[in-house]
Write a structure and sequence with these properties.
It is built from 8 helices and 7 strands, in the order βααβαβααββββααα. It is mainly alpha-helical. The chain has 2 domains: about 80 residues, no CATH class; about 60 residues, no CATH class. The strands form 3 sheets. The protein has a 3-stranded antiparallel β-sheet. Helix 1 packs antiparallel against helix 7. The chain is globular and about 50 Å long.
Length: about 170
Amino acid sequence: MPVMQPVNLRSFKQKVRHHGKTFKRYLGKIGRKFPRQLDQLAEEVSPQVWEEIDCLSCANCCKTMTPTFTPKDLKRISAHLEMSVSEFKEKWLYYDKKDKDWMNVKQPCQFLDLSSNLCSIYEVRPTDCAGFPHLVRKKMVDYIHVHQQNISYCPATYKMVEKMMEKLA
C-alpha cells in the first residue's frame, strides 16, 4: 500500500511537463467515448489518491489558482471577516466579465498562510475551494474539462488520472 508523502512541487511540475498533454488527451478521449464504469472507477481510485497525496504539503491550488466566489460565499466570508460584501469585493476581488465570476485579484490567495499552507478562513472558505479538486462527481463526464485543466495544478488530479489510465488500459 502506498504511503502518503509530502508533495514535491518541483517533481510534480516535471511530471506535468512530460506527461500533461498525454493525460489531457486521454481525458478528452474518455470524454468523447464515455466508459460506462467511469463514475464507479473515480469512486474507487479517489480514496487511493488521498492515501498518497497530502494537500497541506502542497497548496498549489491556493498558490496558483483562484476560486470563483458565489453570492452565498461572498455573504458568508464577508460576515466572517466583519465587513460588507462590497468592502470584501473592493479589497480582494475582481469581476471577470467573460465568465461572470468574482475571483481573487492576486495569487497566492490572500487567505493562505504560506508558512503552514493553512487557510485562514477554512471554516467559511468558498464552495469552489471546499469541493476542489472535484475528483468524485455524480457525472464525471461533465467534469472532464475541469480535470483537464486541474492536471497542471493539482497533484491529486494528476494521480487520479494516472490511476484511471492504469485501470482502463
